[in-house]
Design brief:
- Helices cover 32% and strands 26% of the residues.
- The protein has helices spanning 3-23, 25-28, 35-43, 75-84, 102-110, 121-133, 170-174; strands at 64-67, 70-72, 92-96, 113-118, 139-143, 156-161, 176-186, 193-200, 206-214.
- Strand 1 and strand 2 form a beta hairpin.
- Helix 1 (3-23) packs across helix 4 (75-84) and helix 3 (35-43) crosses helix 5.
- The radius of gyration is 16 Å and the shape is globular.
- Bound molecules: S-adenosyl-L-homocysteine.
- S-adenosyl-L-homocysteine binds at residues 70-73, 96-97, 99-100, 102-103, 117-120, 123, 145-147, 162-163, 217, 219-220.
Length: 223
């Protein structure tokens, strides 16, 4: 597969994401994603984030394994979760679960600065190196436990969690600015999970709403 084939597959993927956005509007209340989110999906080279053998499949709208029992999320899922955060160019975003760094790169195209935490040291190191090589100098990768968030960099305009805890970690809600948004999958592994969209009120309380049914790897507790 050469560059032209990858470009064509990438273009098809964008059309599939647009179609899926229409199909899932009942769950998300959004029949299309913002131009800025779609431009980010068009720009970030997903084939740089998958394992070498998977390059030909990089623009198929599916999650893929990236080693260490972890996955790179489905492109549609990356797009919808990014869209649901309503990001502005100056926003500071906390991501939990850097994985391959693909979602971090999409966030970095749409927001101002991205702080991402990954519990598996090898994945964090690989994501840090990959994002640096691709020129994403507005992303910082921390090896650590996402249940702590990143208190030194808080508060954040938005929080995105890409692994599923069984309930919303209070620490992450605490690190959100008033008016800030969080998207987070909630539920046990291998059971149906639900994507929640949360908005922190000016009084500090968190309003939560159910969005899509989803399937994410569990957000683990570091032993
Ligand atoms: N955003 C990623 C998808 C990652 S899958 C991408 O675009 O590729 C979820 C990731 O969350 C995995 O890499 C997993 O190791 C990580 N993870 C699980 N529990 C975590 C925790 N407590 N803290 C930080 N990362 C965690």
């Amino acid at each position: 597969m050469d560059e032209t084939d990858l470009d064509k597959a990438h273009q098809r993927l964008l059309e599939e994401i647009e179609a899926e956005a229409r199909d899932t509007r009942f769950w998300t209340d959004r029949a299309r994603f913002s131009d800025r989110v779609m431009a980010a999906m068009a720009k970030v080279p997903r084939h740089e984030f998958v394992v070498p053998d998977d390059v030909p499949y990089a623009y198929i709208n599916r999650p893929r394994c990236i080693g260490h029992g972890q996955t790179i999320s489905q492109p549609y899922m990356v797009a919808v979760m990014t869209d649901l955060l309503d990001l502005e160019p100056g926003h500071r975003v906390l991501e939990i679960g850097a994985g391959s760094g693909y979602q971090s790169a999409v966030l970095a195209e749409v927001a101002g600065r991205v702080f991402t935490v990954e519990v598996v040291a090898e994945l964090a190191d690989a994501a840090r190196e990959r994002l640096r090589r691709l020129g994403y100098d507005n992303v910082e990768v921390l090896t650590g436990d996402g249940y702590r968030g990143w208190p030194e960099k808080a508060p954040f305009d938005a929080v995105m969690v890409t692994a599923a805890p069984v309930e919303i970690p209070e620490t992450l809600a605490d690190q959100l600015k008033p008016g800030g948004r969080m998207v987070i999958p909630i539920g046990r592994a291998h059971e149906t999970q639900t994507l929640f969209v949360c908005v922190k009120g000016e009084d500090g309380t968190l309003k939560t709403a159910r969005s899509l049914p989803v399937a994410f790897v569990p957000m683990v507790h570091k032993s």
